[in-house]
Amino acid sequence: MERDLKESVDPALEERLRLLIDERIDAKLASIREKQPSHKKRLAVVVSKGTLEAAYPPLILATTAIALDMEAALFFTFFGLHVLKKGSAASLRFVPLGNPATPMPMPNIISALPGMTALATMMMKQTIASKQIVSIPELLDLARESGVKLWPCQMTMDMMGIERKDLIEGLEEPVGAATFLSYAADADITLFI
Amino acid sequence: MSNDMKADKVLDCKGMKCPMPIIKTKMAMATLQVGQVLEMIATDKGSKPDMAAFTQQTGHLLISMKEIDGIYTYYIRKTK
User: What is the distance between the alpha carbons of residues A4 and A29, in angstroms, rounded to a whole number?
Assistant: First the structure.
């Protein structure tokens, strides 16, 4: 029966049907592509440290990601949250103690003396300014203006008694691990700094 | 590259360090129309590989790059 039907189909009709089906498939695929939002590449970073030198990489990478047409989000947790406190960005400190790679290495017993962190921070900031390297407050402003998602960690806020009013403006609402993971699950680049 | 390349906008990033030349370039590209050309001038050595990466990622066209005495000049055409 099937064989009879196949043999009875006019080759010209068969060819016409084939063309029609191809056309419809192409049209369908085109409409599906149009409906899909263009997927941007995505960067997701956990910011866990609150020192001057540790604040640079996440902010540089996130602002650059936006410049490269990517999406970017930073999740500020534990001491990383310090960066988002009002007045903190301009007063982050560089701690030389226990760091063997400082420009002027010194014994830990010297680095541990009162005032050494302040001195090292001052010198580091002078170097940053003299080399025309962008400051952390400038980078943070850039991040907010360019659309980097800045997520404060709610648990850290609770633990350290930090309230929303203690943090700068222009942040996302505080979130937990699940929100970050949900975002990071669709990210192309994920980092922990 | 010939000096008769005509830029629609010139961006001076001399002295700036990573990531500012790239970020300023991105901002400048946003002010251009498709097809227009940006001339970006930088002294940051890292801008050489980074401009290549920037144009690769964003899809804009790096028409040319020249380096004379530590001054890098880039011509980028906005493609979209």
Answer: 34
- Length of chain A measured in residues: 193
Spatial separation of the C-alpha atoms in residues B73 and B36, rounded to whole Å:
16
ipTM over 0.90: no
pLDDT of A121-178, one tens digit each?
999 999 999 999 999 999 999 999 999 999 999 999 999 999 999 999 999 999 999 9
Nearest to B71 by CA among B17, B23, B15: B15
Do the bridges between strand B37-42 and strand B9-13 make them parallel or antiparallel, or are there none, so unpaired? parallel
CA gap A74, A147 in Å, rounded:
11
Distance CA(B37)–CA(B64), nearest Å, equals 11
Residues 6+ apart with CB under 8 A from A183: A42, A44, A73, A149
Provide the CATH number for the domain formed by B9-77 in this structure: 3.30.110.40
CA distance A47 to A164: 18
CB-CB under 8 Å, B25 with A68: no
How distant is the alpha carbon of residue A72 from its chain centre? 4
A19–chain B nearest CA distance, Å: 34
Single-letter amino acid, residue A55: A
Nearest CA to A39 out of A191, A145, A179, A188 is that of: A188
Q: Which position among B10, B18, B53, B71 bears the catalytic label?
A: B18
Does A66 sit within 8 Å of B26, measured CB to CB?
A: yes
> Does residue A4 register a pLDDT over 90?
no
pLDDT of residue A84: 98
Q: What is the pTM of this model?
A: 0.82
